[in-house]
Amino acid sequence: MGCPKNEIRHPRPSKHLFLCFSTKFKLFQETENSINVNITKDSLSQFSQLLKVLATPKQSSLTNLEFHLVEWETQLVKHLRMLLENNPTVKRLTFRRNKFNAECLSELSNVLRKNKCIKEIVVSESGIGSEGAAILASALKDNQSLEDLQIWEDSIGSKGAEELSKMIEVNSTLKLLTIFDSKSITSTPLISAVLARNRSMEVHIWSLDHNGKISKMVEFAPENSTLRVYQLDISGACRVACSLGWNSTVRSLDMTGVKLKSRWAKEFRWVLEQNRTLKEVNLSKTCLKDKGVVYIAAGLFKNQRLEKLYLDGNWFGGIGVEHLLCPLSNFSALQNQANMVLKSVTLGGGGTKIGRDGVAAILQFLISNQSVTHFGIYDDESLKPDNIVKIFKSLERNSTLKCLSLQGCKGVKDEQVLQAIMTTLNVNPWIQDIDLARTPLQIAGKTQGIYQRLGQNEKTEPEIDLLKDMAMTAPKNCRVFLCGQQYAGKNTLCNSISQSFSPSKLPYLDQVRILVNPVEQAVRTPGMKIKTFKDDETKISIWNLAGQHEFYSLHDLMFPGHGSASCFFIISSLFRKPSNREQKNPSEIEEDLQYWLRFIVSNSRRAVTQCMLPSVTMVLTHYDKINQQSDSLEASANLIQRLRDKFQGFVEFYPTVFTVDARSSASVSKLSHHIRRRSRTILERVPRVYQVCNDLVQVLSDWRQQNRNKPAMKWKEFGELCQVKVPSLRIRSRHDNKDKVDMRRRAVATNLHNIGEVIYFDELGLLILDCEWFCGEVLSQLIRLDVRKQGSTEKNGFISRKELEKILIGSLQSNIPGMGSNLDADDLIKMMVKLELCCEQDPSDPNSPLLIPSILEQGRWRPQRWQVNSPDNNYVGRRLQCDDSSHMFLTPVKTVVFPQLQVHLHNKIMGLRNQHGASYSLEKYLISININGIYVRVELGGQLGYSIDVLACSTKSSTEMLRLFQHLIIPAIQNLCHGITLTEYILRSECVKNLTPPRFRRNQCVPLQQLKRALLSVPADSIYDYQHTWDSIIDSGSHILGPGFDFARDLLSDDDFREVLHGRYHDLYNLAMELQVPQEDNLDYRPSTASQEITSSVDPTFVGIAKGVEAVLQRLKIIEQEIRDIKQEIQGLRYYEHRLHERSGCTCYVNSREMHVVEDQIGCEIMQVDNITVKCLAPYMKKLMKLLTFALKIGAHLAAGMGEMIPDLGREVAHLIDSPLVYGAAGAAAAGAVGVAAAGNRNRSRNSRDIEQDHRAAQQWLVDFLRDQRCSTGKDIADKFGLWRVRYRDDGQIAWVCRRHMYARGFEIIEVPV
């Protein structure tokens, strides 16, 4: 398709326009969307005209412009600018083999600088050079639309590349950069700029290699964040490494085949330390040597992101391997693995010489690493079969590694290697793949069994309850606990027993006393000691519990667990100190023995189940110094017998008390024989244990010998040991339920703890294998740790964790052998928290300050006073004490429970600090709390600490303070006393107000329940006036506090008093039901106006109750005076024909209807009253009962509608006025219930219900009469009336009979205690 040269038509609309200078002028349409225009070189005017036509503003769909072989002039470029400005649809601009002069390039740069539509520019073989690249870069600095820039074979050089790199630093819209240049140096600045500025730009840079072939130099793909470097010189590689330091776009770096040196590795070390996004680095076949690998290894120490590192095919040796695996290994218990994120590592190659040092490093790495899952050694020729066997042997305890590759390793051959692989796979189910390609073993076709076993490890094994089917056996270890105070002779006795069990070549001479050097006594190391002996197949360990008071807090930890074979020997010296002749009195010996008996009973009660009573044997030492004829021995024997009777049923006493001279082997021989015999007996009685526990004892012993006699073991090490050495506790498949297997292992560890073979801290994941080292060295140092001298503590005993770590390292690790390699400072702090020797202020904060109660100051001897002193203050106090303090105590409060209470209350109060503004301060034996205006003091109750006192002062009511006790303080104390029931006592208010010292207020308390029972026993009108009387306090003849009294209503809270009232209402209701009194819901009953007025005027609150009861009591007093006046008138009357006897007697009535007056009985005085007097008193009694009814109804408002249950007693008294009972013989009242039943023939017409009512009324009259005469107990009745309380054998009825019938009818009755 052609057209005349002098005429140019508008081409048809197209998307692509190709303009090319050639020998002929052509214009043709190549495709539907493209037009190709060929213009001859002498037709520049037509080309200019064409550009003008294309630049005419109109609707156009032109998107791509491509110019071939165009020699640009300034005017043509201007026309191109007009074309681009008027055709915003043009997106792609291509110049192939064009020619530009400097002026044209400058004009073109102006075009590109302002254009906002073009997305892609391609410049190919146009010779722009470095200057053109610089001009183009300057334009693109301002361009914000271009996304794709391609420069092909235009020799931009290093200068042009530097200019383009500056453009990249500014331009953020460019998405694709493709450069092909003959000089490889151009790639370095470009890729460095892209990486340094974190551009998400796809980069492809090509160049010519040394052979003149086109090859890619660098490639960066942002879609997968991968940077591949194919060829770079060392300086370029270093520059690229520097740009990666703070880069965040590269995740994977592949430099395979690039020759690198230690200079580059030095720069790359900084990259590993600084970069936070690099996940994978491939440095295979990069010719790195030992020095370069050392730099990379140094970077791994600080790197926390890299997951894969490939270093195979390099030239480093054993030194490089050792340094490379160092940050991935753990060399001691105190060191943590430096790098925990690297998951995959490869090394090896023909040029790698691993050597002896490298093999040792690989073995240590495989044993201790906890992060690497893939490890590969490729094409190695230096490893021998023995080295391969060691490698697989080290994998037996590695539960982290999943894949091991030994491709091409020449040492993987022979049967010993195959056997080692199979053994490891039987033990280690976590290995998923072993790559043995191109190894001699694989070439020989011997790897089939290996892959078959790997397939079996993938299968799920059927679950079996291993512990359920595990063999049981009798225990072989019995623990003997020597309990006693200081200077009891436990150490000397233990040495003598040891000599009896295992005599040395220089035996103890019989009857020869080995005197302990006084200097040795002075420097004796305090603490718990453990000695172990063998008696045939029985292992006997003697645990010498420390007698110093500060060690009492650790005794609970040593107490034997459930079902443990153990016995207790309580040692007490007959003298106060071995250096003098001051003999103990019996009370001191009793105190020593009783303390340890209480300790044993208390800890036994804490156990969930108790299969047998604790076995206790008593031993008295220094027997040689005492006169055997003295009375003190007999007194001591008597007190021991009393203790036996007292604790019978709580412990099992051995009947013989041993009296020994601890320094004499002859004197101790009988005791040693008893220990042997007693241990065997106990081992036969205790429950059986798992056989695996006995097996593990030997396994643990072997492990200690192989690990330099390590005294402690981490839980991970224990799991690895079970996996390798104990098939019954082994994980057989990687799909097994790990939690169940771990639970079985923990059950076995707990069993080992209970039988005394180890000390197991479950929460800490720690097993103490050397109990003697731990108890005698570690715990002794912890309990005596003096933080105040070595560090700065904050107020209230707080110390920072870092400060405590420094103190523990300085104090313990330097003084205790083997401490540094077994327990670090963090373990010790966790242990102190577990034993509650300290607590964390904020458990959620790992750097929280620690509270150490033992460093608190002693403030008991300073003057004590309340923080507030106001006449409106109220004071309350409560004491919590064991309900059976003669047998148990709080184990003990002074050293265990009270420090734990400080810890628990601290955590609770800190949680309420923001809500109630609570404050908290501590002293040695005091906790001070201020919460919501209530000041609380929690104090230790006594020297040995059998109780805890809680005191409070506030202007608020006693009820509010006591509610705080019940909701906060008392539950915290009870939670610390598992298995022990605490009794609550009320402290004297005057002692609380004056803060009387605990030793003086020991007896100034009354049990809470006792006071409640006392209120229930008094008459109803006296319940508010009941007073509790306190004795005086006298010390050494001087009066500390005089006698006094407190109203019971003031000592009790509203809640407690309400409970008493409810009890009283309940009793009255039962009485009304027994009397069968009609209730108010009876339609015949109409309340009087007075009763309605009183009832309606009462406010149903405690204040209203108090006012109502006070008004009732005032009226009762008036009526009481009126009754006294009538009584005086009655006494003056002389005209009554019938009088009652001056004294009332009692008759004896038996089932055979024999009845007679009991002779020689004392009887009770009664008032001389007849029926007329009763009738005169009835109106007053009616009023009295009506008022009592109102008083009861006032209180009943609080009992949820219990007012309906209260009968109208006034109405019932009114019935008595007309009752035939009044007209009967007055003697019937004195005769009791029988006389009432026989009160005249005119009563025969009454129905049975009325008779039953009168019968019950008479019974109640008798009960009330006897109570008024202070004859309310069975013993009083027996004394006054000469009667015995008996039960009939046939029907079980209770009766009172005289002495004659007691003996005459002895075959029919049984005496019942009164």
From TrEMBL:
Q: Which residues form a coiled coil?
A: none
The record ties this protein, via InterPro entries, to: COR-B (IPR057263), Leu-rich_rpt (IPR001611), LRR_dom_sf (IPR032675), P-loop_NTPase (IPR027417)
Record's keyword terms, sorted: Repeat
The family database entries (Pfam families) matched by this protein are listed as: COR-B (PF25497), LRR_6 (PF13516)
Keyword check for rRNA-binding, yes or no.
no
Q: Which domain of life is it from?
A: Eukaryota
Q: What is this protein called?
A: C-terminal of Roc COR-B domain-containing protein
